[in-house]
């Protein structure tokens, strides 16, 4: 019922900031990553905003459109700082693969992000730092993209993204305090085409609501 209410709210409004800003303070969830999590944040229509509305508590969202895992000072790891978080939600790697190797023959870059067994790389380093600070990590696997995804990302859907997905799964399975979430559980070009925005890449408001509800469900399952 909560998800149906949110989808109805999304359908009839472009801006949910009044709703989000009215939520109680004191949220203990941080979201960091790329445009998957940052998309439509100025309108409070992002995935973390929908997570917040589903849970009834604010979520701190530091995700930035276009950011990468390997960009040094401007990278996704730089979005994180310890502040008593219970959970840190993380996504990333897509912009690295699309911009640096055109999603073709990216093994060297993939290894820099995360090794095949999930043991080394900039993403494992970030995850280990977060867990070491006492938070749990929710690591996200990208949903399947349509064949007409824009900005070059269509080239990623059948090769590099599936490999990144497998490596993130390995990273999570080898560590306590890390939960891997397959966003494809609720978002797929065939079954939920309305969940994709006009660029056939980012989540539409309806897609963000589906993903936010999924993350809320996974948080509830993983939290004692």
SSE diagram, text form:
Elements: H1 2-11, H2 17-21, E1 29-32, H3 35-38, H4 47-55, E2 60-61, E3 87-90, H5 94-101, H6 107-113, H7 122-132, E4 136-141, H8 160-173, E5 178-182, H9 205-222
Parallel strand pairs: 1-2, 1-3, 3-4, 4-5
Helix pairs in contact: 1-9, 4-9
- Find the structural class using helix and strand composition: alpha/beta
Helix content: 25-40%
CATH superfamily: SGNH hydrolase
Spell out the helices and strands N to C.
Answer: HHEHHEEHHHEHEH
Question: Total strand count, please?
Answer: 5
- Compute the average pLDDT: 93
The coarse silhouette is: globular
How many helices? The count is 9
Give me the CATH architecture, please. 3-Layer(aba) Sandwich
Identify the CATH class. Answer: Alpha Beta
Largest sheet: 5 strands, parallel
């Amino acid at each position: 019922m909560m998800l149906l209410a949110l989808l109805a709210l999304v359908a009839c409004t472009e801006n949910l900031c009044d709703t989000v800003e009215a939520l109680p303070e004191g949220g203990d969830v941080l979201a960091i990553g790329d445009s998957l999590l940052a998309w439509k944040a100025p309108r409070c229509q992002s995935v973390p905003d929908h997570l917040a509305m589903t849970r009834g508590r604010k979520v701190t969202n530091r995700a930035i459109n276009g950011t990468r895992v390997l960009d040094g000072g401007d990278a996704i790891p730089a979005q994180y700082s310890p502040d008593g978080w219970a959970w840190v939600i993380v996504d990333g790697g897509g912009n690295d693969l699309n911009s640096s190797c055109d999603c073709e023959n990216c093994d060297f870059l993939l290894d820099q992000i995360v090794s095949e067994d999930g043991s080394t790389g900039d993403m494992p380093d970030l995850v280990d730092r977060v867990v070491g600070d006492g938070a749990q990590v929710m690591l996200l696997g990208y949903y399947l993209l349509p064949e007409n995804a824009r900005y070059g990302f269509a080239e990623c859907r059948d090769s590099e993204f599936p490999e990144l997905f497998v490596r993130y799964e390995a990273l999570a399975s080898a560590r306590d305090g890390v939960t891997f979430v397959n966003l494809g559980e609720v978002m797929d070009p065939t079954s939920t085409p309305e969940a994709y925005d006009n660029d056939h890449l980012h989540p539409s408001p309806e897609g963000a609501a589906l993903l936010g509800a999924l993350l809320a469900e996974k948080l509830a399952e993983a939290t004692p």
